[in-house]
Design goal:
Layout: E1 4-5, E2 12-13, E3 17-19, H1 29-41, E4 46-48, H2 63-75, E5 82-87, H3 106-120, E6 125-130, H4 139-151, E7 155-161, H5 165-178, E8 185-187, H6 210-218, E9 223-224, H7 234-241, H8 254-261, H9 263-270, H10 274-280, E10 292-293, H11 298-305
Parallel strand pairs: 3-4, 3-10, 4-5, 5-6, 6-7, 7-8, 8-9
Antiparallel strand pairs: 1-2
Length: 319
Amino acid sequence: MKNIVIPNTELSVSPFGLGTVDAGLLWDGADADRVFESFLELGGNLIDSAHVYSDWVPPEIARSERVIGDWLSRSKKRDKIILITKGGHPDMTGENPDTHISRMHREDMVKDLDESLGKLRTDYIDLYFYHRDDTAIPVEETIEVMEDFVKQGKIRYYGCSNWSTERMKAADRYCSEKGYRSFVANQALLNLGSKYMNPLADDTMCAIDGEMYAYHKENRGNLAMPYMGVCSGFFHIYDSKGEEGVKNSPYYTEGNLKMARRLAALKEKYNATVTQIVLGFFTVQEFPCVPLYGAKTADNLKEAAGTFDIRFDKEDYMF
């Protein structure tokens, strides 16, 4: 796999990142070691977490960070990875969490970052993200919080997740005035099915729409890191169970069904799996994309890594 260098940084990242929302739920301990070690053996180096993963499953909080920290403590391979985590997400504990209750003030971010450093058992985060946005907080204030973290040596670079294009541009303008690096990466929803999908239940999650797509074409210094890269399994389920299996999915629309019906032909054309075809979508975009992929097993990672050995034709994704 060929790494992607983020301009004006010291970061050279693998073409897909290991998402860890399932760490501690699907894999832990020795199983986690196999997942992380397999990822490194395949050439991966970007590991993505968040302080909120997976607080919605009681009783443990910051479960994903704890699993990563356990592995780093055992393996002593902190210098082999580029570590991402995120803070400022609304509280997801309790029976009815509300993602509209902001937790992005300075004291929230300081608390989340310090707790993340403890859970991850590291002195610094390579790339730290605002997990949500709060437009009531001036963008200048949010940037200065991150710059303070950089000055303190707690983070190397910072990014944003679920921010609008307008707010990212405002941050870029302020950083240009102050001589700051600004956002290094943007995590937002983009995948093979996102253009035609129905709205997600959580309206605080942002998709890469036409405006944001144009932004990334012009601003390659802010690397697109799409989440939900495999469309929550929509195309996998269709491939194995047909239309009946996907009727309750937000991706269940005529546009996505049209693409799903083409899977058999594309699998044969490229001698590829559904995972590879779905991830192949990111290799034909007009700007660099580093999708986040949440593997269930170590074997899943080998399949995903094989995507980047295939030269996909952009026309196969145009419909």
